[in-house]
Amino acid sequence: MTLPQVNLPSAVGRPANPAGLPPAEARALFRAGLVTPTSGWSSGYAQANLIIVPKAQAFDVLLFAQRNPKSCPVLGVLDAGETSGPLLAGGDIRTDVPKYVVYQDGRKVDEPTDISNHWRDDLVTFIVGCSFTFESALQDNGIRVAHIDQGVNVPMYRTSVRCEPAGQMAGPLVVSMRPIPASQVADAVRVTSRYPAVHGAPVHVGNPAELGIADLGGRTSATRSGSRTAMCRSSGRAG
Amino acid sequence: MTLPQVNLPSAVGRPANPAGLPPAEARALFRAGLVTPTSGWSSGYAQANLIIVPKAQAFDVLLFAQRNPKSCPVLGVLDAGETSGPLLAGGDIRTDVPKYVVYQDGRKVDEPTDISNHWRDDLVTFIVGCSFTFESALQDNGIRVAHIDQGVNVPMYRTSVRCEPAGQMAGPLVVSMRPIPASQVADAVRVTSRYPAVHGAPVHVGNPAELGIADLGGRTSATRSGSRTAMCRSSGRAG
Q1: Quick check: ipTM above 0.85?
Q2: pLDDT, tens only, B188-219
Q3: Are residues B70 and B24 in the same domain?
Q4: Ordered mean pLDDT values, 10 residues apiece, chain A (239 residues)
Q5: Which end of chain B is more exposed for a tag (fewer CB within 10 A), N or C?
């Protein structure tokens, strides 16, 4: 596969203006080793989460997404063994993401920046819409996004709400959270509702305890590690 | 499984008021042997088409639906071997449809009113939204539905438009057609657009030749036989 020509900075540092970076250039930075949350990057383009599973589990994952479209809005699927596709033209799904989390038998075994040595020809890739996509629209509507202002990843929480299971796939609803002044909540709902393919309007506004979140300081491990990859809003037990 | 108690007419004829029949009673009539198109039945309830395939093909079918959501809006999936589910509470997918078309190796081998003797524990059932659902909404908005007035099945056509393939699944877009006076077309589009889960707004308005339909008299075989079951708007080559 021929990768696109892009100008890399001499050292792989965070670019001065990530919001203005075209996706192919962002992917080239990640391919070269940059590790960073991507909130605020490539404004106006869809961002995605990744789920990669063996073909034997692929039906269950796709059925889980069909039954939980709000949690797992599928933007595209790469067939078994495919490592690129129209959603990442010229890219390589094994290298072009800042960081991956690799699970085996339900246990995390690796957090590489490249999964080439884990790749198998029976792996099916699901590209799932990410709510980072609508953050620039929130900002364009005068709504500040706290974690972008702070330069950190979005807070995420495992809730007590169960997703609809599908075959081997089951798990709690996982949510991201954005603190927004009460006077702007209606605007935030209106803006995000236009983006159903990247989770859309909030599943809840108001009291985190109603979702079983007792402590807004207790984020998921995925957030603490700074990694979002291989993370679905609704985490499931992949085999 | 216990089937619901319903009052069956002494002979299985077409009921006087099919539009007012609750779905469980309609299913009981079909289970008892009534064969009829269901356009105009059970007004206000979703109607569905059926696709049943071996588990080995199920991922390709679901992926085909994900890539062609306008053609194959999946309302629900019954896991391998399941014969009932929440969308047909108390029903049995093997008996409760007026007529089935059974394919083997891509060839039609049977058109039974009951597929119990074809059933296998590895069969996965896809319940796909049917445009009959929005016809009562069209009528409520003063738009006449010609095939209901005439008591026949909706005209359907195989077009020259290709669906997005998925694994083993590929095939042309198949459309239903409703002749509507030009002055009511905008209303018809507005009304049907509210029902994306059952195909929604038309894929085309105007000139059938643009979809490769040379002759509006040349309907698909599925229409000629009066059977809709196992027919997806986008037919695919199931193995």
Answers
A1: no
A2: 999 999 998 899 999 999 999 999 998 888 66
A3: yes
A4: 47 85 96 91 93 96 95 94 95 96 94 96 96 91 92 90 95 93 94 91 92 81 34 31
A5: N
One domain for residues B129 and B160: no
Rg (CA), chain A: 17
Residues A34, A27: Cα–Cα separation, whole Å: 9
Q: Do B206 and B108 belong to one domain? A: no
How many structural domains is chain A composed of? 1
Q: Looking up tokens 């908005």, which residue turns up?
A: B141
Beta-carbon contacts below 8 Å between A and B: 28
Domain that holds residue A214: 17-239
Q: Has this prediction a pTM greater than 0.90?
A: no
Nearest Cβ partner of A62 from B55, B62, B79?
B62
CB-nearest partner of A66 from B55, B62, B67: B62
Query: Residue A65's closest chain B neighbor by CA?
Result: B66
Angstrom CA distances, B90 to A214, B23, B83, B97, B112, stand at: 40, 11, 10, 14, 21
The CATH number assigned to the domain holding A175 equals 3.40.1640.10
Q: At which of B133, B157, B172 does a domain end? A: B133
How many Å lie between the alpha carbon of B178 and the closest alpha carbon of chain A?
Answer: 30
- Which chain B residues touch A63 with a CB distance below 8 Å? 62, 77
Q: Please name the residue of chain B whose CA is at the shortest distance from the CA of residue A61.
A: B59
| Cα–chain center distance at B16 | 22
Exposure of B203 by Cβ count < 10 A (0-12 exposed, 13-18 middle, 19+ buried)? Answer: middle
Residues B119, B38: one domain? yes
Say whether both B86 and B158 belong to one domain: no
